[in-house]
Design goal:
This protein is of the alpha/beta class and 230 residues long. Helix content is 29%, strand content 22%.
Length: 230
């Protein structure tokens, strides 16, 4: 048997692992049971009743969290020279084109978001092998392939997050930090869940949202009662 640490035992004594909670209750519990010395990330895991292998059941999108994600996003903009000033003014950390494409080909991916424009997607598309597995490939559906570079950078810096269902039918996303007020965590989580609900594929049959769990770094997961989602 694996030995349960004292902190985990204490955390598990503060809630009922067999019960599901409302969003407001779950965010309070997460704050109460997180024992890390650093400001832990809070994540949501949503199991969907879809088959991601079918193109018409792929759930993918982005959402602007009302209270931001709490994470400092490093943004790279791959653009033509006429868009450099706009990207820089909006707060992009790295701006350029060919030199960054070469760096990425060499394995550099030290960023959180990559934004580009339609006219250079031919060049950026060649980076799919490096960027795809890291979830960094720009995509028009998430607003990261756009002519409105400034807005895309502002959104990314301000708490916009991208999400995508994985092969197991699960969407995992960051909704804030443990230091956030529990109401703000609940509002961020609700915004994400409502966005996922709107993206339900018409071809998905049966129950769409199978389960929702909230957790922080190294904390146990709290199940959220899906009937509260409306």
């Amino acid at each position: 048997m694996t030995k349960i640490s004292k902190n985990r035992k204490l955390a598990m004594s503060k809630y009922d692992a067999t019960k599901s909670y409302s969003l407001a209750e779950a965010t309070k519990i997460i704050k109460d049971i997180t024992t890390t010395k650093f400001d832990s990330s809070v994540d949501v895991s949503v199991r969907l009743g879809v088959d991601p292998r079918k193109a018409n059941q792929m759930v993918r999108g982005s959402v602007s969290l009302p209270h931001g994600s709490g994470k400092t996003m490093r943004v790279l903009v791959l653009c033509t020279p006429d868009k450099v000033a706009e990207a820089t003014a909006a707060g992009a950390d790295f701006v350029g084109l060919d030199e960054y494409i070469e760096k990425i080909k060499g394995g550099w991916t030290d960023v959180d978001v990559i934004i580009t424009m339609p006219s250079v997607m031919g060049k950026v598309g060649a980076l799919g092998r490096v960027l795809g597995p890291r979830g960094l490939m720009p995509n028009p559906k998430t607003g990261t392939v756009t002519m409105d570079i400034g807005k895309a950078v502002t959104d990314a810096k301000g708490g916009k997050i991208d999400f995508k269902v994985d092969k197991a039918g699960i969407v995992q996303a960051l909704v804030g930090k443990v230091s956030f007020d529990s109401n703000k965590l609940a509002e961020n989580t609700n915004e994400l869940l409502q966005t996922i609900m709107k993206l339900k594929p018409s071809s998905a049959k049966g129950v769409y949202v199978r389960s929702v769990y909230l957790s922080s770094t190294m904390s146990p997961s709290i199940q959220i009662d899906t009937k509260f989602l409306g």
